[in-house]
Amino acid sequence: MARDTRAPDTALGFGVVAGLPADLLTQLAREVARLAYGAFWINDSGRPDADGLAGLAVVTRAAPGLILGVGVLPLDRRTPAEIAAHVRDLGLPLDRLVLGVGSGGAVRPLGLVRDGVEELRRLLPEARIVISALGPRMSRLAGEIADGVLFNWAVPERLRAVSALVAEGEHATGRGPIRRWAYVRAAVGDDAEERLAAEALRYAEYPAYGRAFEAMRARPEHVGITGEDLAAQLIPYRAAVDGVVVRALPAAWTFHEAVAIAQAAAPGPGVR
Q1: What digits encode the pLDDT tens for the residues 182-193?
Q2: Which residues make Cβ contacts (< 8 Å) with residue 63, sequence separation at least 6?
Q3: Could you give the 3-state DSSP secondary structure of residue 58?
Q4: How far apart (Å, rounded) are the C-alpha atoms in residues 32 and 60?
Q5: Which end of the chain is more exposed for a tag (fewer CB within 10 A), N or C?
Q6: Can you tell me the distance from the alpha carbon of 83 to that of 52, in angstroms, rounded to the nearest whole number?
Q7: CA distance linking residue 232 with residue 239, whole number of Å
């Protein structure tokens, strides 16, 4: 396979679920880097068998140049001290680490996230901390205190609307713009639309996501991209935020199935 000589696109990431085998992560990381993606993201459920940070340790050994994103660590299940100790134990490169955090199922989510970000800044000052935001209050909080924000399950119009709310937080505290990332679910293959619909409807059962779908007046199964022209479909998403993460929804977590999504979403040379 010929080596791709394009410069890494730091505004384009590829995202997978946590808990994948190390050999699969190694193969994917190397191919994602070859395709000129600039970042590799892994989610995290707070469970030992789905450890996003441990997966990133595999990724950085396979493809040392990639930005490493975890999205997101639930602060109701993983304390800042536990997160920081795990990052240090794994030897993750802090200058390339984007540490995504969220409230999980917390009763008082804003306070938990505010305190968590403050403590993580003290413990891991070199890492970039981003907040997962769905609604107005968390979006404004991200603008006030975080290095970035990670949106999820949103169409481009919704991304622009919540990005404006982030700007309100930025302006209120006199800060410069923070980086806006968005997960974009992507699938290819004969049953791509069915896979996307099933995943979206599963998320819509959670009240916070259900409200987000209602706010943007979009049917859950219509949020995301499918087909062989993923790179073209990503263009309006990329215009709405600073960076997108192609969150893969393969038919099965094999190299062939996952890399087909990465290839379909990767822009050709000179196309950004």
Answers
A1: 999 999 999 999
A2: 29, 30, 32, 33, 40
A3: helix
A4: 12
A5: N
A6: 11
A7: 12
